[in-house]
């Protein structure tokens, strides 16, 4: 059976493939090959500028040709490398041979081919490529997708800042809040979590087979290889050099990045479940599209499927990201290959996150606030005013305010009339009594609206 979207094992490359088009060139096998070529080219050019007698500075035309191989790298180029790998049975060596083929005919480069991959171990190329892949994915896809959610939530927090809503602590009626404040609560958490993702420093090593520059020093013992490597990694590739490694970069920064992503995803699971509940209560309605079906048998239903899909895919992402963060920093002695096959799933784990962000974005765009339903819930919950009444009673030293309100309200259906009657019978200063008598469940929201209105990204 030929490979197609219908026969793909992963839904990321099947059913959901269009939603991940931006991620695919960055974290796929193609993306890895592309970055390998970039690293090999920059290392090669840097060697030509290091002052070695055997490798004088390349003319700008030759540098431009080399860098054009990166800029114009295509799927056909990736396939050509893959074809070479069938013979070498080594993916990084295949990139080296492909580069030799592409530049071997150039007079200024033909006698310098041995400086391709000079003194490098495969992991020098791979770890740097993985860091570049994550850098591009974070900048171009992950953070923009997160920011799309945060922007929408900030707009909701501000738009609904003063719309009162009944709280439900432990699932029971509780002191009212506002819709905007509840959105702001989540937004504040997400903003912090987003910063943790953005702040992770992406590391790379270019120090040879066991991290000691053994081969480098054997060829050019007088060179400052630590500084040379730092310049390539930091100034040419925009990463940060890790000076102390074994054969592999130990992936601690990856674990930090993946754990930070898990933390943000966990907050989004919490949010998706809350919105699901608010839809169930009728606080939110969902916009519908002509021809859309909510249930195969119940025509009236409009299911909160976007938030359900988001929750499910966030769970998939977190399971994989957690495994990667726990496995990748562990390597037997100076190197084992268990990290290699796991790293090939970076795109899958991040892909499930991005898919979830897309679902949440679409779900948020469909929400419509049902202020009538919110008001109905508040108007049937006058018992929540027991809190402010007993608090004012405490201020003025009335006897046993908590116990009085507990006996009056607990297990009893409360109405506006009952609450007003209780307040009228209290020996309180007139100003405070008037304020309590004017209070309703919908007005008892404290600083909720102000807090929501001033939330910023």
Automatic annotation (TrEMBL):
One of its GO terms (molecular function) is N6-(1,2-dicarboxyethyl)AMP AMP-lyase (fumarate-forming) activity. It catalyses: N(6)-(1,2-dicarboxyethyl)-AMP = fumarate + AMP; (2S)-2-[5-amino-1-(5-phospho-beta-D-ribosyl)imidazole-4-carboxamido]succinate = 5-amino-1-(5-phospho-beta-D-ribosyl)imidazole-4-carboxamide + fumarate. Residues 331-445 form the Adenylosuccinate lyase PurB C-terminal domain. It comes from the Bacteria. GO terms for cellular component: cytosol. Keywords: Lyase, Purine biosynthesis. The keyword Transmembrane helix does not apply. InterPro entries: Fumarase/histidase_N, Fumarate_lyase_CS, Fumarate_lyase_fam, Fumarate_lyase_N, L-Aspartase-like, Pur_lyase, PurB_bact, PurB_C. One of its GO terms (biological process) is IMP biosynthetic process. Residues 14-313 form the Fumarate lyase N-terminal domain. Pathway: Purine metabolism; IMP biosynthesis via de novo pathway; 5-amino-1-(5-phospho-D-ribosyl)imidazole-4-carboxamide from 5-amino-1-(5-phospho-D-ribosyl)imidazole-4-carboxylate: step 2/2; Purine metabolism; AMP biosynthesis via de novo pathway; AMP from IMP: step 2/2. PANTHER family: ADENYLOSUCCINATE LYASE. Catalyzes two reactions in de novo purine nucleotide biosynthesis. Catalyzes the breakdown of 5-aminoimidazole- (N-succinylocarboxamide) ribotide (SAICAR or 2-[5-amino-1-(5-phospho-beta-D-ribosyl)imidazole-4-carboxamido]succinate) to 5-aminoimidazole-4-carboxamide ribotide (AICAR or 5-amino-1-(5-phospho-beta-D-ribosyl)imidazole-4-carboxamide) and fumarate, and of adenylosuccinate (ADS or N(6)-(1,2-dicarboxyethyl)-AMP) to adenosine monophosphate (AMP) and fumarate. This is Adenylosuccinate lyase.
């Amino acid at each position: 059976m030929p490979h197609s979207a219908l026969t793909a094992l992963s839904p990321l490359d099947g059913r959901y493939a269009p939603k991940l088009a931006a991620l695919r060139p960055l974290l796929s096998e193609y993306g890895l090959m592309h970055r390998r070529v970039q690293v090999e080219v920059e290392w090669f050019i840097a060697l030509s500028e290091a002052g070695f007698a055997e490798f004088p500075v390349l003319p700008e035309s030759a540098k431009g040709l080399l860098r054009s191989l990166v800029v114009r790298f295509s799927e056909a180029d990736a396939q050509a490398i893959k074809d070479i790998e069938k013979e070498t049975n080594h993916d990084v060596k295949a990139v080296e041979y492909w580069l030799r083929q592409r530049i071997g005919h150039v007079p200024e480069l033909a006698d310098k081919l041995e400086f391709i991959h000079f003194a490098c171990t495969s992991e020098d190329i791979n770890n740097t490529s993985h860091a570049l892949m994550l850098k591009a994915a974070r900048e171009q896809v992950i953070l923009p997708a997160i920011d799309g959610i945060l922007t929408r939530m900030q707009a909701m927090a501000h738009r609904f800042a003063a719309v009162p809503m009944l709280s439900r602590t432990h699932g029971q009626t509780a002191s009212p809040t506002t819709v905007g404040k509840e959105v702001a609560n989540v937004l504040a958490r997400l903003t912090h979590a987003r910063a943790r993702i953005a702040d992770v420093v992406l590391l790379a090593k270019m120090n040879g087979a066991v991290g000691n520059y053994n081969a480098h020093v054997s060829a050019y013992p007088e060179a400052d290889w630590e500084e040379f490597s730092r310049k390539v990694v930091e100034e040419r590739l925009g990463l940060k050099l890790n000076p102390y490694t074994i054969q592999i970069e130990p992936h601690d920064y990856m674990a930090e990045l993946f754990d930070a992503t898990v933390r943000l995803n966990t907050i989004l699971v919490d949010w998706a479940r809350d919105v699901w509940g608010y839809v169930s209560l009728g606080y939110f309605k969902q916009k519908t599209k002509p021809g859309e079906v909510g249930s195969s048998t119940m025509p009236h239903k409009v299911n909160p499927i976007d938030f359900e899909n988001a929750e499910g895919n966030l769970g998939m992402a977190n399971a994989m990201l957690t495994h990667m963060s726990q496995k990748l920093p562990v390597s037997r002695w100076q190197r084992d290959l268990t990290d290699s096959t796991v790293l090939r799933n970076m795109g899958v784990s991040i892909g499930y996150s991005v898919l979830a962000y897309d679902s949440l974005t679409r779900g948020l765009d469909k929400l419509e606030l049902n202020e009538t339903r919110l008001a109905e819930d508040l108007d049937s919950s006058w018992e929540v005013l027991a809190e402010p009444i007993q608090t004012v009673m405490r201020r003025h030293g009335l006897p046993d305010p908590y116990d009085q309100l507990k006996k009056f309200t607990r297990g009893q259906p409360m109405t506006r009339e009952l609450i007003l009657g209780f307040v009228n019978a209290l020996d309180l200063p007139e100003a405070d009594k008037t304020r309590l008598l004017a209070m309703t469940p919908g007005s008892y929201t404290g600083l909720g609206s102000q807090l929501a209105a001033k939330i910023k990204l």
